[in-house]
C-alpha cells in the first residue's frame, strides 16, 4: 500500500470471526472499527481504553454493514483495501469482493508481519510481564512433579498459576490450521512421537482428536520431563521451555541438554541488530553436528525443522525466523526472539534450552532452573 494513497486501508480480524477492523489512512489519521453496538466500545480497561481515548473509534453491527459505515466516514468506494491473504479464508475474501466491488483488494499480510516484528517499549513490557508469569508457572510445575503424576495432570498445576496471573488460556499461531495449548508436557519416549505441527517435538496427546502434546502416561523417576509453556499478558505471548527430572538426569541425556544450553548461549551472544538470521541458524546447526547430533538436532531425520528460533508477540510464530531460507533478513533492534535449540536423543526424549530474548540486548529474564 503506497503512502500517497490517502484512502489506503487495512482490515483485520483480531478473532476468527472478524470482530475488529483497523483502517489506516496514511496521510492524516487512523481509526478503529469494532463490531459492537454503538456505545459498547467505551467499556474498556487498561491499555485498550487508552487507545479508544486517543483515536477515533467507530462501531458496526455486522460485516454486511461495513460498507455503509465506511461511506459515512467519507471513504470512497474505490479505496484500496489491504487484507491478510496468508490467513484469510477464500470464502471470506469472496465476501469482501462482493461487499466492495469497486475497491482495490491487495495483500498487506507481509507488510504487517514485518511491522509487528519490531516491538514498541509498551509491547516489550507486556512480553516481560508474560515472562514473569511463566516463571511462577514453572515453579508450580517443579513443585507438582512427583513420580506417577501423568503428563496430562502436570499441565493443570501450571495452567492454574497462569490463569491466576491473567492468562486467557489461549495462544495464537499464524500457521495455517495449527493449534497450540498454553502448556505442553513431554516425558520419556512419548516426546519422540511425531505430530502435525511444524515443530521438532510431538507427543501422543490425549486422544486421536488432538494427537499432540501431553498424554495420560505416568511420569517416571530419571526421565527427562520437558515443559513448554507460553505466558501471556494483554494478548502478548512469552515462549519458554525447561527440562526437569525426578532425581538426577542420566547420561547421555545430560550431555544433550548441556549441548542445547551451549548452543543457546552462542545464539544469544550472536543475536545483535544486523546479524543475518540464516547465519545464526547455520552456526547452531554446525555446533550440533560437531557434538554428534546431526540426525537428532531440531527433530529426527528426515523430518527435522529448518529453524532454531522465531519471533514472538501477539502470535507465537512471528517474524523474524532464525532459519534456513532467511539469508536476506537481518535482525533489528526491537525484535523479540524465542531461541529454542532442541535435541532428540536415542531415548526419544527432547531436551531443550529455550528462552525469549528481549530487544536483542541479550537480557535473559529468567535463570535456568533444573530440578
Write up this protein.
This protein is an alpha+beta fold. The chain has two domains: 9-115, Creatine Amidinohydrolase, Chain A, domain 1 (3-Layer(aba) Sandwich), CATH 3.40.350; 121-364, Creatine Amidinohydrolase (Alpha-Beta Complex). The chain is built from eight helices and 16 strands. The protein has helices at residues 46-54, 66-72, 90-99, 109-116, 121-144, 154-164, 253-270, 277-290; strands at residues 9-10, 20-25, 29-34, 56-59, 80-83, 104-107, 183-187, 224-233, 236-245, 307-311, 318-323, 337-339, 342-344, 350-352, 355-358, 363-364. The strands form five sheets. Strands 11-10-12-15-16 form a five-stranded antiparallel β-sheet, sandwiched between helices. Helix 5 (121-144) packs antiparallel against helix 6 (154-164) and helix 7 (253-270) packs antiparallel against helix 8. The radius of gyration is 22 Å and the shape is globular.
Low-confidence stretches: 1-7, 13-19, 43-49, 346-352, 357-371
Counted by DSSP, the helix tally is 8
Strand and helix order:
EEEHEHEHEHHHEEEHHEEEEEEE
Helical residue percent?
A: 25-40%
- Main pleated sheet: 5 strands, antiparallel
Compute the separation of the termini in Å. 52 Å
By DSSP, the count of extended strands is 16
Pairing-aware structural class of the strands and helices?
alpha+beta
Strand order of the largest sheet: 11-10-12-15-16
Instruction: Specify the CATH architecture of the largest domain.
Output: Alpha-Beta Complex
Q: Determine the mean pLDDT.
A: 78
- Molecular shape: globular
Amino acid at each position: 500500500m503506497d503512502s500517497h494513497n490517502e484512502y489506503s486501508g487495512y482490515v483485520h480480524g483480531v478473532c476468527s470471526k472478524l470482530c475488529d477492523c483497523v483502517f489506516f489512512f496514511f496521510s492524516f489519521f487512523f481509526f478503529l472499527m469494532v463490531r459492537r453496538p454503538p456505545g459498547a466500545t467505551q467499556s474498556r480497561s487498561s491499555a485498550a481504553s487508552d487507545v479508544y481515548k486517543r483515536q477515533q473509534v467507530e462501531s458496526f453491527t455486522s460485516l454486511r454493514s461495513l460498507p455503509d459505515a465506511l461511506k459515512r466516514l467519507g471513504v470512497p468506494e474505490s479505496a484500496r483495501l489491504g487484507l491478510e491473504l496468508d490467513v484469510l479464508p477464500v470464502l471470506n475474501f469472496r465476501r469482501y469482493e462482493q461487499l466492495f466491488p469497486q475497491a482495490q483488494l491487495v495483500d498487506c499480510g507481509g507488510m504487517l508481519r514485518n511491522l509487528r516484528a519490531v516491538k514498541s517499549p509498551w509491547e516489550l513490557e507486556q512480553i516481560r510481564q508474560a515472562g514473569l508469569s511463566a516463571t511462577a508457572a514453572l515453579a508450580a510445575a517443579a513443585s507438582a512433579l512427583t513420580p506417577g503424576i501423568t503428563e496430562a495432570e502436570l499441565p493443570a498445576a501450571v495452567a492454574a498459576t497462569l490463569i491466576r496471573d491473567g492468562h486467557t488460556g489461549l495462544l495464537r499461531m499464524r500457521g495455517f490450521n495449527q493449534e497450540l495449548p498454553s502448556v505442553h508436557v513431554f516425558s520419556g519416549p512419548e516426546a519422540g512421537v511425531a505430530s502435525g505441527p511444524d515443530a521438532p517435538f510431538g507427543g501422543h496427546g490425549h486422544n486421536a482428536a488432538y494427537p499432540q502434546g501431553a498424554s495420560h502416561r505416568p511420569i517416571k523417576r530419571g526421565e527427562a520431563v520437558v515443559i513448554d509453556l507460553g505466558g501471556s499478558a494483554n494478548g502478548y505471548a512469552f515462549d519458554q521451555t525447561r527440562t526437569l527430572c525426578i532425581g538426577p538426569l542420566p547420561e547421555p541425556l545430560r550431555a544433550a541438554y548441556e549441548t542445547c544450553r551451549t548452543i543457546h548461549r552462542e545464539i544469544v551472544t550472536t543475536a545483535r541488530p544486523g546479524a543475518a538470521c540464516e547465519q545464526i541458524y547455520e552456526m547452531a546447526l554446525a555446533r550440533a553436528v560437531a557434538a554428534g547430533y546431526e540426525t537428532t538436532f531440531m527433530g529426527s531425520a528426515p523430518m527435522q525443522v529448518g529453524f532454531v528460533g522465531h519471533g514472538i508477540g501477539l502470535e507465537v510464530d512471528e517474524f523474524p525466523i532464525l532459519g534456513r531460507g532467511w539469508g536476506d533478513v537481518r535482525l533489528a533492534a526491537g525484535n523479540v526472539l524465542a531461541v529454542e535449540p532442541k535435541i532428540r536423543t536415542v531415548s526419544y526424549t527432547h531436551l531443550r534450552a529455550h528462552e525469549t530474548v528481549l530487544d536483542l540486548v541479550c537480557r535473559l529474564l529468567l535463570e535456568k532452573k533444573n530440578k
